[in-house]
Structure formats: structure tokens, C-alpha cells
Specification:
With 294 residues, the chain is mostly beta strands. Helix content is 0%, strand content 61%.
């Protein structure tokens, strides 16, 4: 079962969508790609709230999944249940404003794992966007999540529930290139498993923020390992959520070029901030606690 695009020279190209799932459909066996899947709107598109998908989406090291200017390269727009993983070792690319991987409905049970490149360019570019639905699993990166645009985000959570963790492993890079880019941007929604970084989280634009926590619920804390770098033009870590549950622990570098390393603002902060021996938190202010119960 499923869809196999097996050779590095194999191509599935759609004037609108490369692959679209619509109607009351049950798909078993997943999608495996080692070639090219491309669409001007979406490369892979889930387009009906009755779609049930059991299996994985796997993009091999030779694989390219490409949207040339529509919505997203992998667009989980409308679906009921997705049971499986999205695993990328190749390239998942959204150009001209298209997102890399997008989910905005449904129930997803599995992990999103990147060891290749997921990228998005132009405007409000987002490499991985979770704007609705529930993902029970983890988002893990050991490759490159790259968003390039004025208001870019490497990973965006805005309305979704992530019942799991966010991990950027050693060697992994999450980069938002643009004036107000944010490496990991949590605006609304819930995250239950915290953030662990051992790689690089970069938002070097003048208004850039490395990690922004303004979501409806956040627990699990933020850990920056000895190999970890969180570097931003403005704020390294900004916490403005009503209640933050967990610790911020730094063993690496958290850097602000012009403003503050860590800001706790307008929150109930249920945890501690620990800077380990040899670690660095740097900025015009290292740590700013503003109108926060701490």
C-alpha cells in the first residue's frame, strides 16, 4: 500500500498539488520519496476533514518535496487522524511564501523529525508551522530548519497543542533570517514537554528573538546544553506567558546583540533560572525580570 516514489530521478509534479488526499479516504502504507514531489500550491496536500492516514511520510536523503509558491511543501490542512511519523533526510522546500511543513487541524500521533533541510522563504516564512490540531509526539531537528523573510520563524506554534517536546540536537540549526525573525515562536496553543537545545537557534535580525514563549500553556522548561547556542539580535529567550512551569537551565551560550539575554515579563514563573559553571548569558541586560512572580 501507500505511494512510493522510489528513484532519485523519479518525479511526481502537479500544476496545483503533487499529491492530494481528498474525500472520505483511508490511506495505509504512507508515502516514501527518494525523488521529487512538486506542486505550485502544495507538494503533499491533506484536503478533507475525513481523511485518515496510517503510515509515515518519509523523504530520503535524495528526496525533494517542493512547493513553488503556494501554501506548503507538506500541507496537513484538513484531516481527521494521522498515525505515523514525518521524517525528512532530504529537502522539504517552500518558496515564494510557501511554508515547509504545515499542520492546522486534526489529530497527529507520531513525531516530526528532520535530519535534512526544511526551508521557507519570503515574507512570513515558516519552516515548520503548527497552527491547529493536536500533535501527540515530538518535534526533533538535527539538520537545518531555515526560514528567511521579514517575520520569519524556524518553528511556529500558534493555536496547536504539542503534547510532547521540541529538541534541537547537537549539529542542528534553527535559523530565522529577517528583521523580526524568531527561531522558535510559541504565540498561542500548548506545549507540554519543554524545549531542549544542544545546537544553534539563531535570529540575528535587529528585532530577532531566539525563543519566544507567549503560548496558552507551557511546561517542561527550557534547557540549553553546553554545546548549545541561542543567539538573537534582540532577545535570546523571551517568556511572557501567563504561567511558565519548569526551569530555564543554561550550560552553553545565550546571547543578545543589543537587548537582553533572558526576559521574564508579566508571568507567573514556576521554576528557576540556572546558569551553569562556564556558561554565558549576555546582552545589555543579562537577565531581566519585569512584572513577574518568580
Amino acid at each position: 500500500g501507500g505511494i512510493q516514489n522510489t528513484g532519485s530521478g523519479s518525479r511526481i509534479i502537479g500544476a496545483t498539488d503533487g499529491i492530494q488526499f481528498a474525500g472520505d479516504s483511508l490511506i495505509t502504507g504512507g508515502i516514501t520519496n527518494a525523488g521529487t514531489i512538486s506542486g505550485s500550491a502544495n507538494a503533499i496536500h491533506f484536503n478533507n476533514a475525513l481523511v485518515d492516514f496510517i503510515g509515515d511520510i518519509t523523504n530520503a536523503s535524495t528526496g525533494r518535496i517542493l512547493s513553488t509558491g503556494g501554501a506548503a511543501a507538506i500541507n496537513l490542512e484538513l484531516f481527521d487522524n494521522f498515525v505515523g511519523d514525518i521524517t525528512n533526510a532530504g529537502r522539504v522546500v517552500g518558496t515564494a511564501g510557501a511554508l515547509g511543513i504545515s499542520m492546522n487541524s486534526g489529530f497527529f500521533v507520531g513525531d516530526i523529525t528532520n535530519s535534512g533541510t526544511v526551508s521557507s522563504t519570503s515574507g512570513a516564512a515558516v519552516a515548520i508551522s503548527l497552527t491547529g490540531g493536536t500533535l501527540t509526539g515530538n518535534v526533533s531537528n538535527s539538520g537545518l530548519l531555515l526560514a528567511s523573510g521579514t517575520a520569519a520563524a524556524g518553528l511556529l506554534i500558534n493555536g496547536a497543542v504539542l503534547d510532547g517536546s521540541i529538541t534541537n540536537s547537537a549539529g542542528g540549526v534553527i535559523s530565522a533570517v529577517g528583521a523580526t525573525g524568531v527561531g522558535i515562536n510559541m504565540l498561542t496553543g500548548t506545549v507540554t514537554g519543554g524545549i531542549s537545545n544542544a545546537g544553534d537557534i539563531l535570529a540575528t535580525g535587529a528585532g530577532g528573538i531566539g525563543i519566544n514563549v507567549a503560548a496558552d500553556g507551557f511546561s517542561g522548561g527550557i534547557t540549553n546544553a553546553a554545546t548549545g547556542l541561542i543567539s538573537a539580535g534582540s532577545t535570546g529567550i523571551l517568556v511572557s506567558i501567563a504561567t511558565f512551569t519548569g526551569d530555564i537551565t543554561n550550560s552553553g551560550d545565550i546571547l543578545s546583540a543589543t537587548a537582553t539575554g533572558i526576559v521574564l515579563s508579566g508571568s507567573i514563573f514556576d521554576g528557576s533560572v540556572t546558569n551553569a559553571a562556564g556558561a554565558l548569558i549576555s546582552g545589555a541586560n543579562g537577565i531581566l525580570v519585569d512584572t513577574t512572580n518568580f
